Amino acid sequence: MDRIRVPESELTYRFSRSSGPGGQHVNTTDSRVEILWDLGATAVLGPEQKERARQRLASRLRGDVLSVTSSQYRSQHRNREAARVRLEELVAKAVEPPRPRRATRPTKGSVRRRLDAKGRRSELKQQRRRPEA
Fold first, then answer.
1. How far apart are CA 91 and CA 48, in angstroms?
2. What CATH class does 8-95 carry?
3. Are 53 and 65 in contact (CB under 8 A)?
4. How do residues 12-26 score in pLDDT, each as one tens digit?
5. Cα–Cα distance, 1 to 11 (Å, whole number)
6. Span 102-128, pLDDT tens digits
7. Cβ distance 51 to 112 under 8 Å?
8. Crossing angle for the helix pair 47-56 and 76-95, nearest 10 degrees?
9. Are 17 and 74 in contact (CB under 8 A)?
């Protein structure tokens, strides 16, 4: 799976205070990063890739905008990188074409079990019928 490179010009960053380690520093620094990326306006993906991404990322999209956050590190710079990597990996996985289904046949045992179950069910229903006069 190749990572898709999203141009910096298509990304919008928002910063806020992060919980977690950092001591007094954490109360004064906006180290949490949220990256917003407009899926509909991107030039990186083709139309069929955009549609596949919309379907697979539907729960993460607000309108056509994908949002990824990171507050893993104390540093805003490292969180920016972490969020960007996660965004690109998410998009790459979402646009991956589905693997074709390989046709398989049921095993002899499974066919036999299915037919035996049908026979038992049929017999049970026949026993419920009124006897013919």
1. 13
2. alpha beta
3. no
4. 787 777 666 665 666
5. 22
6. 999 999 999 999 999 999 999 999 999
7. no
8. 110
9. no
Joined together, the tokens standing for residue 79 give 């969180």
Amino acid letter for position 113 = R
Tokens representing residue 68 in the block: 């990824």
- Cα dihedral 26, 11, 91, 20, rounded to 10, equals 0
> How many helices and strands in the chain, by DSSP H and E?
3, 4
E strand or H helix that includes residue 11: strand 11-16
- 41: Cβ contacts below 8 Å, ≥ 6 apart: 10, 64
Q: What is the pTM of this model?
A: 0.65
- Specify burial of residue 78 (Cβ count, 10 A radius: 0-12, 13-18, 19+): middle
Rounded Cα gap, residues 6 and 95, in angstroms: 13
